[in-house]
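DATA SHEET
Item: assembly model
Revision: 1
Owner: S.N.
Input lines:
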Amino acid sequence: MDFYLPEQRSNLSTRIREFVEKEITREYAREIDAKDEFPDALLKKLSSLGFTRVNIPKEYGGEGGDVIDTMLIYEEISKRLPVLAWALGNILLYGNEIITINGNEGQKKMYLPVLAKGEMKFCFALTEPNAGSDAASIKTRAVYEDGYYRLNGSKIFITGAGVCDIAITFARTGEEKHKGITAFLVPTKSAGYQARPLEKLGYRGSNTCEVFYEDVKVSPEDILGGEGCLHKGWTQMVKLLNTERLVLSSCALGIAQAAFEDALTFVKERFKGSSEEAFQGIKHRLVEMATELEAARWLAYSAAWKETQHLECAKESSMSKWFSSETAKKIVLQGMNILGGYSAAMDFDMQRYLRDVLILSIGGGTTQIQKNIIAKAFGL
Ligand SMILES: Cc1cc2nc3c(=O)[nH]c(=O)nc-3n(C[C@H](O)[C@H](O)[C@H](O)COP(=O)(O)OP(=O)(O)OC[C@H]3O[C@@H](n4cnc5c(N)ncnc54)[C@H](O)[C@@H]3O)c2cc1C
């Protein structure tokens, strides 16, 4: 077993770390959070440096990277500005990855080279007001009429829906619960498409929206994978799940790492010269934070390694998703505790880590849903 990152991956990690250090000052990150502003300028810089093409196959203008490369990027960015990792993630996951694994040849040729250059943004529109964890209960409907599908319905909590070019929209095309769902590539400039941003606690700037479809006309060619993929939306979505859970795990790792580092820096300053007894409890808490974080990291990257080897890893990626987001929550709460009153001050980042980390156990399937999946794998 080799636990070291090969040179190519470690170069990628260094490149993204340097970007974060140079381009995202703490003040800038706080400003984006305070203004609830989509980090468009930073996203453009990331694409100019090639980070939008990392996981696109080489024949379509990409670098041919895998889920571990994506996770390394997410983790580094999430240490400073988690919402930027999500903005980039909408491209890497809901653009590059979805089209690579589910698109037909025409769609790959049309979208991947443009996505590689960072000239297009996607979002993933599945959740509805009455269909979250039970996503297959969606009611948004696509009806075939005069050579087109007409979409009617609404979605909620769709990240990036107001700033993207294409909304991958899951809609009901048949009555069977799972086998009656189709994924459509809906251009957001289509008449009848409307996105309304929601104000929320954390991941501010993510442009998470309510979306309304009123007689939105979509061509059958814009079914993800082509006309032959009518009613195949659920199967296509399932193919994405391991990767989604793993990259969300790496977001949690990044936030937890930042909380640990800030707490460590704070303690070194504040408790300089304190007596050993006063200091010991704090030291132990820091040690626990670091150890739990390391355990979560190994779980995430070992599951990701399985994914890269095309081994079955649905159980492990669900384990990683719930464990890393719940562990990160615990670590940030410890950080809040260690910083005392400063943890609540807006010119310290710990309060933002808390607001952001709370969301990670919801998006991409809640902790309870991950546990249901794992229990099912045990035959329960
Ligand atoms: C910031 C943010 C961004 C998001 N971005 C997107 C996006 O880009 N695209 C998208 O499609 N969706 C997105 N979502 C939606 C997210 O995936 C859903 O919120 C999530 O799946 C939970 O659904 P729900 O909110 O309807 O909660 P519910 O499903 O109603 O769950 C409520 C509670 O009940 C529990 N519960 C539900 N069912 C079960 C069960 N069977 N067993 C045990 N417990 C259960 C849940 O764990 C939870 O605690 C986003 C959400 C947030 C908060």
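QC remark: The chain has a mean pLDDT of 96.
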